[in-house]
Specification:
The chain starts with a strand and ends in a 7-residue tail after the last strand. The chain is globular, with a radius of gyration of 17 Å. Helix content is about 40%, strand content about 15%. Helix 1 runs parallel beside helix 3 (about 65-75), helix 4 runs parallel beside helix 5 and helix 5 packs parallel to helix 6 (about 170-190). The protein has one domain (about 5-255): 3-Layer(aba) Sandwich (Rossmann fold), CATH 3.40.50. The protein is built from 8 helices and 8 strands.
């Protein structure tokens, strides 16, 4: 496990958020981390370069350092932890590193995923198991670790996970995201005694560099607003849910997709 760290001088305590899946500057995770930094949070974030390297967009050289520097420019102390969340030991190690460098985590925002297209007839057992290890099991282990460690003021704890309702020819991704939904929404009740809220966000299709021209056209035609989703659209909702004003929104699966209809 490797880490990158950046600590600007500060004379005021800032709450700490752990954001997973911050491997690319153009990604939703990075957009959320930037927004939270601007809103006064310190940031721990995870990334896993081998995942990006085997995807069509490829690994972004120096992404973790660049993201950490951008967060520091927004006033945040940061630590980036490279971790394969398919490893069941990774969530505990990530929290250990985040707390050692930044202090107690108040918000857990899960943007990590395994996402490889395949359908009912061609999904391999290896792919199915890895999707569930990353998207479902790691979500449970991260939420569990957060609940075990949270010592914040009741009402200040936040769990937020990003989901998807895409399943056709995307079987292991969609099925494992469905499991993620249930795990996260259970936390709204099971962690209530700790003063932690838990919500799921479905951001719909967001253009982070993976869309073909055909997909862009399909998404635009199905979106009343006439534009593609952006990471900032999801980031603003996450910022609100993490704020004191967002405390009463709990146990919800929220769509933030501009009215997109698949």
């Amino acid at each position: 496990m490797t880490t990158v760290e950046n600590k600007p001088p500060s004379d005021a305590a800032r709450p700490v958020a752990l954001v997973t899946g911050v491997g690319r500057s153009a990604g939703i995770g990075a957009g959320i981390a930037h927004r939270l930094a601007e809103a006064g949070w310190d940031l721990a974030f995870t990334y896993w370069t081998p995942y990006d390297a085997r995807m069509a967009w490829g690994a972004e050289a120096g992404a973790a350092d660049a993201i950490a520097a951008a967060l520091a420019e927004r006033g945040a102390a940061t630590v980036g932890v490279e971790a394969d969340l398919a490893d069941p030991a990774a969530p505990e190690r990530v929290f250990e590193e985040a707390e050692r460098r930044l202090g107690t985590v108040s918000a857990l925002v899960m943007c990590h995923c395994e996402s490889v297209d395949s359908g009912l007839l061609d999904t391999t057992i290896e792919s199915f198991d890895r999707h569930f290890a990353v998207n479902a099991r790691a979500t449970w282990l991260l939420v569990r670790e957060f609940g075990r460690r949270f010592r914040g003021t009741p009402g200040t704890g936040r769990v937020i996970a990003l989901t998807s309702d895409h399943t056709v020819f995307n079987l292991p991704y969609g099925a494992s995201k469905g499991a993620l939904d249930r795990i996260t929404l259970a936390a709204a009740h099971e962690l209530a005694h700790l003063g932690i809220t838990a919500n799921v966000i479905n951001p719909g299709p967001v253009d982070t560099g993976w869309m073909s021209e055909e997909i862009r056209g399909q998404v635009l035609s199905g979106t009343p607003g006439g534009r593609l989703g952006r990471p900032q659209d999801t980031a603003h909702l996450v910022e609100f849910l993490c704020s004191p004003q967002g405390e009463w929104i709990n146990g919800q699966l929220l769509k933030s997709n501009g009215g997109f209809a698949s």
